[in-house]
Design a protein that fits this description.
The chain is an alpha+beta fold. The protein has helices at residues 11-16, 65-83, and strands at 20-25, 28-32, 38-46, 49-57. The chain has one domain (11-83): Double Stranded RNA Binding Domain (2-Layer Sandwich), CATH 3.30.160.390. It is 30% helix and 35% strand. Strands 1-2-3-4 form a 4-stranded antiparallel β-sheet, with helices on one face. A hairpin with a 5-residue loop joins strand 2 (28-32) and strand 3 (38-46).
Length: 84
């Protein structure tokens, strides 16, 4: 069984990350593009299909890591209501 990540990223890592997709845990991802832009993405399942919701920009001037985690938790609660 895969190990479940939880709060794997740090604020310093968010600023220094090179292009790619990084998992914080429980569906929260940091997406860093080649241009250097950074955004938070929440990935979840609805009726067996993977869905992504953009939570906003990351890094300086954007959404802080803790706020992104709070938004993820809010969307997770909402998505679970949809499946019920």
């Amino acid at each position: 069984m895969p190990r479940k990540l939880r709060n794997a990223l740090s604020a310093d890592y968010v600023q220094d990350a090179v292009p790619g997709r990084y998992v914080d845990g429980d569906g929260l991802h940091l997406l860093v593009r080649r241009s250097g832009s950074r955004s938070w993405v929440f990935r979840f399942m609805v009726q067996g299909k993977s869905r992504d919701i953009g939570l906003g920009p990351a890094g300086p001037g954007g959404i802080a890591l803790e706020e992104a985690r709070q938004r993820r938790d809010q969307y997770r609660a909402s998505s679970q209501k949809l499946q019920s």
